[in-house]
Amino acid sequence: MSEAAGRGISRPWERLSAAQRELSPRVILGGLLGLIAVVLLPLAQFRFVYDDWWTIVSNGFLRRPGELALLLSPEAVARNIPDAFRPTLVVFDVLTYQVLGTSSHLHHLLSVALHVLVCGLLARWLRLLGAGVLLRAATTAMFGLLAIHAEAVAVVSYREDLLAAALGLLALSAATRSAEAPTRARDLGALALAAALSALACGAKMSAATLPALWVLAHSLSPWRLPLSRSRRALGFAALCLGVGLAVAHTALLHGGISPYETAASPNPRLLATRVGLGPVLAQSTQIHLAYLQQMIAPFGLSPEYTDRGASWRDPATVLATASLLGLALWGVSCAARRRRPLTALVILGAFVLALPTSNLVAIPNMRADRFVYLMSAPVCLGLSSALLAAGDWLGRRARPRERPRERPRERPREPRAGVHGLAWRLAPLVAFCVGQGAVLVATAQNYRTSSHLWTTALERAPDSARAHALYAETLLSVARNTPRGELSHTLILTRVEGHCRVASRLDPVYELPEICFARLAVERRSWSEALRRFSRALAVSPDRNARILAALGQIALDVPELDTEERRRRSASWIARGLREYPYAPELHAVAGRVAHLTGDPETALRHYRDARTLAPERLQTTIWGLELALDLGDSRAARKIWVRDRKLLGRAPVAQRASLLLRIREVERLFPSHPRASILTDGVFY
Prior knowledge:
By secondary structure, the chain is an all-alpha fold.
């Protein structure tokens, strides 16, 4: 007799017929994982969006694997290494860059693979807890196709949620297996592995910090088998908490506190809690988390952009949300205390526990995002799967045909097919729910296929978002740059850009993105003084990620007509020196430093910076073009031809007119300088 049967715990959806048991659980799970992968395969066609450019494309630190030890010291923050407080994620990005480069298609395939891996690990942990095969399969299918996961899976830079979930589930499984270890040595080894995996999970994202509490809940309530002893639970919990403590200590070492976004000495103006206080933020957070529950059950209202706002505790929406969440929590506590519905208690309390890291108790840059639900949705999927299977079993009993008595059967009755018929009814609600969720998942993921489509959708869903207006304006600017100057269409596009910049500035006057929007508009209009003023204001209000602002200031300072030549050079050198000091891994800063040195007549310095920029971002087209122009200006035909041949694929991304102009210049230099009169500084190794 099984432990579950010994405890009297039985579920109608776990009583499988003999025909249903013929399918191996591995075959069922493998088929479901393959189905999830096929559904998400179109995501491989997507481009980089959101922070993908900052964390992957323009992150020069990924090209320096020999300097990974910096992640263990405050120097990582001093050098502004992207996501330095998430060392697991940074190491993962370094490794994947060595293999995948900056191919958006391959990185998206990796995100899909990580999501499928998380689904498999969730099913594995449920098996270790003793859940039946049908419930495991249902939970896996629902988690894999849940529509609210579109953002986490479709955006490459958000795979931190996937990585944290995968490592966290591995840690939970290792802690569970430690209780089943046959020897003390293996028990300690499993506990050490659980602690290490827990630290790595929190090193990917702190959303995994409450997983130890989920593990204790699962083994205390134990819906499917006898619970672990108190000593075993204490050991497993301590091992998992040790990993969380190591991750928190690492963040404190780097930032001087548990929050990487602000400290008591330097509050972050980008955080809403800094502006309005923690109380209104927490009041709004109750509405946000009730909306999360609605979006998981009924997937409408999903959006790539949400506006941060505070709320009052006396607002009717806040009162209703607080009462609903409090009632749900009390129901879960009541079920746990009476031990009559252990699965219900695990689902409710587990979801509340996993929601804590994103409940705005500690200020985070975005109060709300669909990706925050990724890990929290696991217990919710377990509860929904259980409810839908129970509903299907009820439908099966209601739809089962009644047998009519026969006086004398004239032939041998056929073998009943009740098993297949019953399974079809049992799975009908679950299948319908998963099909609907999967359809919405694929449709929602389309919002993230390109940056222009993303911010068009974001502006429609959140018209009061300053970020949406500012970044949508930048997509319009990219269209304007490909439109001939002087045409009416070019002027009209710039007018639209200015309108969105003004709206963004009105919505958030102390936000750097509206100022950057105005500055880039001024650059397109060649109003250099206005561009310099706007970029300077953006730098004054921006708390971080200022590499592109400093690079723009260093380049624009040379074109301001109100300044004399010496003042231009001094200001440009000052901005560039600050940028290289604060952001040594930003390739755009090294490229601009080389360009400024090139334009001011210092080819040796230009060559050095171009080489550094090439090392930090070998896929950057602008660096190659500027290096080629340096060779042409110096009359080094051999170096110019070598650059053209070596980087012909990269130069193929340049506009046709620019590529033709460069080729004509190369041929002209080859005609005028068939052999360079002296040893060129470029010929040896070209410029990288």
